[in-house]
Design goal:
single chain, 227 residues, mainly alpha, 10 helices
């Protein structure tokens, strides 16, 4: 079933809110001579976060430390992974990292370094989330995940009474679901629902699905556990 037509928006001629906000934001950057794209601070942050992610892994490989040290390094990698996702690939996939499209495309692929698919992410985030922000059953960012409930408009189950207790644990392991199943399920679902608007040839091209879960499993999971 296609998602198109399920939600209708007010005609732009009848709603000046978006145009007014966009105009004021544009004027803010112009009046203060500020670039709308990343500056040297973002570049420095990129190097730092990639270092936090990559250096612990290099140390694990080279020195094969005792188990508890490996776990500590693994934890540091996790912090770097979260930082790279929130501060680097997010801006790049929005075209805000640089005014150069090639640089944005390159930096957006750091998500693949984390074991996920930038292609799927852009469909879920740039299209579904930012078009249907917080609209239940349309915005997948607030879709219920297993025993986790994210929207006040979805069905309440008895187990949700304890969500305050178990949410941190289950949300913390959703990365495992992401790299083992989520991207694959999304890829086929987006083809079926029309969210993936590419041509049939592009949809069936394996290069379109550019996620790399095997990298995550080998680098972020198997290697530290093997030490």
């Amino acid at each position: 079933m296609s998602l198109k037509g399920q939600v209708k928006f007010v005609n732009r001629d009848k709603n000046q809110f978006f145009a007014a906000v966009r105009s004021r934001v544009e004027n803010y950057f112009k009046e203060n001579s500020i670039s709308k794209h990343g500056n040297s601070v973002l570049v420095n942050k990129t190097f730092l976060l990639l270092l936090i992610y990559c250096l612990p892994f290099i140390l694990i490989i080279l020195f094969q430390p005792v188990y508890w040290v490996s776990l500590l390094l693994w934890l540091i990698m996790g912090v770097g992974m979260a930082g790279v996702g929130m501060s680097v690939m997010h801006d790049a996939n929005h075209g805000a990292y640089s005014n150069d499209k090639t640089v944005n495309n390159l930096m957006s692929h750091v998500l693949n370094l984390l074991g996920a698919s930038r292609f799927n992410w852009k469909l879920q985030h740039n299209i579904l989330h930012h078009t249907y922000t917080n609209i239940t059953h349309m915005d997948e960012d607030i879709a219920d995940k297993g025993v986790l409930r994210f929207s006040p408009h979805t069905k309440v189950k008895p187990i949700h009474r304890l969500q305050w207790l178990f949410a941190f644990f289950f949300y913390g392991i959703t990365t495992l679901y992401w790299v083992t199943a989520k991207d694959f399920l999304q890829y086929f679902r987006y083809k079926k629902t029309g969210v993936n608007a590419n041509s049939k040839k592009e949809k069936d091209d394996p290069k379109v699905y550019d996620g790399n879960p095997q990298h995550f499993l080998n680098v972020d999971l198997k290697r530290p556990l093997a030490q």
